[in-house]
Amino acid sequence: MPEPSDSGWVGNWSPGIGDPTFVGWVTVVVYFWAAWRCFAAARRITGRMATLGAARRERQFWRVLTIVFAFLGVNKQLDLQSALTEIGRLLAQSEGWYEIRGEVQLAFITVVGVLGVVAAAVAVFLVRKASAGARVAAAGTATVITFVVVRAASFHHIDRFIHSKWLGLQANWILELGGLAVVLGGTYAQERAFRRIR
What we know:
Layout: H1 22-44, H2 53-78, H3 80-95, H4 101-126, H5 132-153, H6 156-162, E1 165-166, E2 169-170, H7 171-197
Helix pairs in contact: 1-2, 1-7, 3-5, 4-5, 5-7
């Protein structure tokens, strides 16, 4: 198997359109839609309500999600995770453990999986007194971030799984867009809750 040419900015990677497909662009739009909805959710927590501890934490939570999803929307097409993969490959070659990279990738995925579960639990704990919408969005965010990080590992078996199809849909579409749908559902649940208390 030929090695990458290392002709890009980082190894074989250079900035460009990472996923020019229809679904790729739809996913970018959904990322920015999620960012906008999270921004709107933060803005709903205003006035006296925003001085209360739980409400203040929830507003900060939505602001963080705004930044996260705006960044992931840009990343979706710049394909920054491929740059991370290239850095890992170059490091493996320079440090002499390229031949055992499969084991390193597996360990990485295992650690990320555990951290993803812990992050989801921590996120839900931190917003436990927040609106139900914030708790739903925390779970969806953990799903999306875990997917993005594991995808960046570029482990052969993971690549094969996420490009497999279920009912004609690629697994990566289901996981990424599914996680985003959960986040969006959380923003709408929060909006409905705020309308009821006005």
